[in-house]
Amino acid sequence: MGMLVVDEYTTIDHADRAEIKVKGSRFIAEAFQVVSEEETLTRLESVRKREFQATHHCYAYVLGAPVASQFKYSDDGEPSGTAGKPIYDLIIGRSLTNVLVVVTRYFGGTRLGTGGLARAYSDAARAVLDRSGTRINYMTCRFRCEIEFSFYDSWQRELRRLGAYTVDARFSDRVTLVIDVRRSGAAELAESLAELTSGKGLLEEIDA
To answer: Long-range contacts made by residues 66-71, C-beta under 8 angstroms, separation at least 24?
Structure first.
C-alpha cells in the first residue's frame, strides 16, 4: 500500500468584514485568504493605514498548505492573551489555514476587563469567519504527457475517470498533453498511462 498523500486543505471561501459593538467600543473584524507572510503583512498594513484612527489592530494568521506550519498572533497593546490568542484559537478550531483575521478596535470609553475583551475579540472574529464561509482547496501536480494518436480518445476517458484535466494539447506525429491532477492521483495517473500504452507513453512532471 502506498503512502497516503495529503493534498487538500480548508480555507475561507472569500474575504469579508463584520462589526460588533460592545459598551461603546467598535470591533471591526476582517478576514483575508493569504498564501505567504509577505502577503499577510501587506494586508495587515493596508488595514492599519485605512483605519489609522483606531486604538488597536489585533490579529492572527495561519499559513501553510496542505498542513498549517506557520502562525502568529498579536494583542497590539491590549492586555496579554485577550485578543490575538482568541482570534487564533477560532482559526485553528475551524481547521483553517492560509487565513488572516484582523480585528480593529475603536475604544468607546468603557473598559471591558480581560474577560470582556477576550469575549469581544472572539465574537468579532467568529462573526467574520461565519460570513467568510469555507472551501476545500486541492493541491495539484502538472505533467507533460506524450502518446501515440491512437491512444488519444481512450486516454481522455481515463483522465476523466481520474479527475484529471487537460490544460493544453498539441498534435503532430504524436500527441503532447499538459495535464493537471490532484497530488494523491499522480501515482495512479502514471500507472494508468503505462497500462494503456503498454509502456509507450511518456510522462514527466513539470512546473505549473
So the answer is: 66/6, 66/7, 66/8, 66/9, 66/139, 67/6, 67/9, 67/97, 68/92, 68/97, 70/37
- At residue 118, the 3 state secondary structure works out as helix
Residues with Cβ within 8 Å of residue 1, at least 6 apart in sequence: none
- Single pTM value for the model: 0.81
Give the mean pLDDT per block of 10 residues along the chain (208 residues): 74 97 94 96 96 95 90 95 96 96 92 92 97 94 94 93 92 93 92 93 88
Contact 114, 78 (CB under 8 A): no
- Which residues have a Cβ under 8 Å from the Cβ of 119 and sit 6 or more positions away? none
